[in-house]
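Technical annex, item 7. During the second reporting period the consortium partners agreed on a shared format for inverse folding records so that results from different sites could be compared directly. Each record opens with the tokenized structure and is followed by the designed sequence. A conforming record, contributed by the partner at site C, is shown below for reference.
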């Protein structure tokens, strides 16, 4: 058996060395708008905090357009970037993005990842989010340890298309994904 490590097992994190911006947890814009604070916590697969990850956000300006270029702050308008604290937590202060379904583009970088993980945080009522053409065919499958009948009902009521309780096999997950994608 070959026990050599691959690059994703040996990489950084070195985000704090060259990617740290002064006040990057406070997103700036040329426009004024409604204040929004995004807080979260990053944990690994075992539930342990990841205190050396980086969270980066990008968004439209409050008037729904591509943000104007930054002015001397060292980082562009509409973009935030913070390192997580020792407990895995992060905080980014911004303004409500404009548009039909206001959202933040969020990228997570952490040890063991050579590429960031991307997602969106929507800040609009569910019906406006579901009307977003980018999500028209998107399915939501909740993977969780919470398995009571009440938990499942709440997950489905919140908009999940499917619900799986851990533990489950890779084969079971693949089968459930195939079923969801055929609907």
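Designed sequence (site C submission):
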């Amino acid at each position: 058996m070959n026990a050599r490590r691959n690059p994703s097992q040996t990489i950084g994190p070195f985000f704090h060395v060259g990617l740290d911006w002064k006040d990057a947890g406070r997103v700036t814009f040329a426009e004024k708008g409604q204040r929004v604070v995004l807080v979260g916590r990053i944990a690994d697969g075992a539930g342990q905090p990841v205190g050396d990850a980086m969270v980066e956000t990008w968004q439209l300006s409050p008037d729904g357009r591509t943000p104007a270029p930054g002015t001397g702050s060292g980082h562009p308008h509409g973009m935030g970037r913070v390192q997580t604290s020792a407990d895995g937590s992060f905080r980014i202060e911004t303004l409500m993005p404009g548009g039909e379904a206001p959202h933040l583009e969020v990228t997570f970088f952490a040890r063991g990842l050579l590429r960031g993980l991307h997602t969106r945080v929507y800040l609009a009522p569910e019906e406006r989010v579901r009307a977003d053409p980018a999500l028209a065919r998107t399915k939501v499958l909740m993977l969780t340890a919470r398995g009571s009948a009440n938990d499942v009902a709440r997950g489905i009521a919140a908009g999940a298309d499917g619900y799986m309780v851990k533990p489950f096999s890779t084969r079971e997950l693949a089968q459930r994904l195939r079923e969801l994608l055929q609907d």
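The mean pLDDT is 84. The first helix runs from residue 7 to 10. All partners now use this format for quarterly exchanges.
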